Amino acid sequence: MSGIPIRLRVTAACAVVMAVVLAASGWFLYARLSSHLSTQRQQELQVRAQDLGALVSHPGASLATDGGGRLIEHGESYAQLVDGERVVDATSPLSGRPVLSPEQLRAATRGPLYADLPSVPGLNEPSRVLATPVQRGGRQLVLVVGTTTQNEAETLAAFRNELLIAGPIALLLASLAGYLLAGVALRPVEAMRRRAAEISAETAGERLPVPITNDELERLGTTLNEMLERLEDALQRERDFVADAGHELRTPLALLRTELELALRHAESPDELRAAVQRSAAEVDRLAQLADDLLLIARSERGELPLKVETLEANELLATVVRRFRWRADEERRALSPEAPNGLSVNADRVRLEQALGNLVDNALRHGSGSVTLRAAPVDGCVELHVQDEGPGFPHAYLDHAFERFTQPDPGRESAGAGLGLSIVRMIAEAHGGTAQAANGAGGGADVWLSVPR
User: Fold this and answer.
1) For a surface tag, which of 2, 209, 214, 419 has the fewest beta carbons within 10 Å of its beta carbon?
2) What mean pLDDT do residues 290-309 have?
């Protein structure tokens, strides 16, 4: 069934259901008609038996004299009056032999008896009879009234033939109607399929046509368009990421190339050559760091950022980060200190959390001024890890975009970096189920923090 079009499958299913319905309806109607004819025949036999019983109860009355009358229809009904096993009177063309067996006649003396006969003398057709006891001249006789069932059989056969002709025609018309209706119902799906086949990376802004039907098709089209919108956003972010990464990589590569060319062509002493190599090594370090940051971002977006969660003491975590950056703070004659209450712990990956705090401390030492404080505080079931400095703080317009990639408060500033540090901080915080925020302190300076589960 997998290779058969949906339209044909729907039509086949409709045909099968319609065939079952038609067959069941035909059987029901046929059975109802048969039951109705049988009931009508029995009522006619009862009425005829009552009338003939009243007639033959008078001495001298004869069934033969009424053979062409209103009670007996020639060729279709008959009557017989039996005394014991002797026929007293009978309509034409019955012979003098009883149509019922002796056992049936004895049973009829005790009450009305219905019986089906395959044939009777003179009427070679199946019939149904009613035998009832009657009184005549003080003696009990049996009146047998019968009618042929040929008309009933012919009526049922004609009705059956009509069903056998009309049923397949109705089934064919229903299948054709199902095929047409399935085509109409699937037309919006085909329109969406054709449009989907035309959408590519170059036409990512295209959307599928959505039928206004307030049903499953409209919801399907709306859902698919929402999915296309998400894919377009993801594609645009990917393009922006590639473009920004290419731009950021171009600058250190150009500087590295310039330094190497100057060293090859213009270095006149070992000191000048050594200085050029040192500057080139710095650019190589910058390239390596940028490559690591880009790789981390790519892994995070694919959901492949591994975390080794463990319980960490906040004061030990902050002390470790302070020890890593102590030498830089000492060179710049700036204070660097941790503040965390004893017993405060977090559930996090030590390496990733130290990386995030390291980015914040690096930004504070590079772009801020005054002392730098690492502070941990419990807030609403989480632990906020703050890095504060006493510099000029962030430009107000920059705060809303601080954690976006490749954004910098002052792009023209020397050693401004690639603008990925805060973006990585946010990714690490979100990977832990937390958040990252930035603000300017009330007394001046920048305050950047991330929250992780306590």
Assistant:
1) 2
2) 67
Distance from the Cα of residue 159 to its chain's centroid? 46
Task: Count the Cβ atoms, other than its own, within 10 Å of residue 94.
Answer: 23
Residue 317 has a CB neighbour count (10 Å cut-off) of 24
- Bond preceding residue 93 cis, omega within 30 of 0: yes
Which is more confidently placed, 253 or 231?
231
For residue 244, the domain's CATH number is 1.10.287.130
* 148, part of any domain: yes
Tell me how far apart the alpha carbons of residues 120 and 90 are, in angstroms, rounded to a whole number: 12
Better-scored residue on pLDDT, 50 or 74? 50
Q: What contacts 389, CB < 8 A, 6 or more positions away?
A: 364, 368, 369, 370, 371, 372, 373, 445, 446
Last residue of a domain, one of 301, 322, 342: 301
The whole domain housing 384 covers 309-453
User: CB under 8 Å, gap of 24 or more: what pairs does 397-403 form?
Assistant: 399/438, 399/439, 399/440, 402/438, 402/448, 403/436, 403/438
Residue 104: CATH number of its domain? 3.30.450.20
344 and 231 together in one domain: no
More confident residue, 266 or 182: 182
Q: Are residues 447 and 320 in the same domain?
A: yes
Per the rule left: phi > 0, alpha: psi between -120 and 50, beta: everything else, 128 is beta
SS3 370: coil
Q: Is the pLDDT of residue 332 over 80?
A: yes
pLDDT by residue (tens digit) across 11-57? 888 899 999 999 999 999 999 999 999 899 889 888 888 888 888 87
| Residue 293: pLDDT band with limits 50, 70, 90 | low
- Quote the longest CA-to-CA distance of the chain: 161
What is the Cα–Cα distance from 67 to 326, expressed in whole angstroms?
Answer: 134
